[in-house]
Amino acid sequence: MKAIKYIYWQDDDMWLGYLEEYPDYWTQGKTIEELEENLRDIYRELTGGSIPYVRRVAELEVA
After folding, report:
1. Fold of the CATH domain 1-63
2. The pTM of the whole model exceeds 0.85
């Protein structure tokens, strides 16, 4: 099983978050567990090709 990092916070009665590698694609849930399940769904969609033109974060080494 692969682990990926995500950013999350609570806003009133909802949990919001996004995958660290894909910061443009936010989701939410009424509980932290629901948020995590929604993040898993987004990950599958982003990596499965069903969302076109996916923007990602990468790291570049420079001198």
Report:
1. Double Stranded RNA Binding Domain (3.30.160)
2. yes
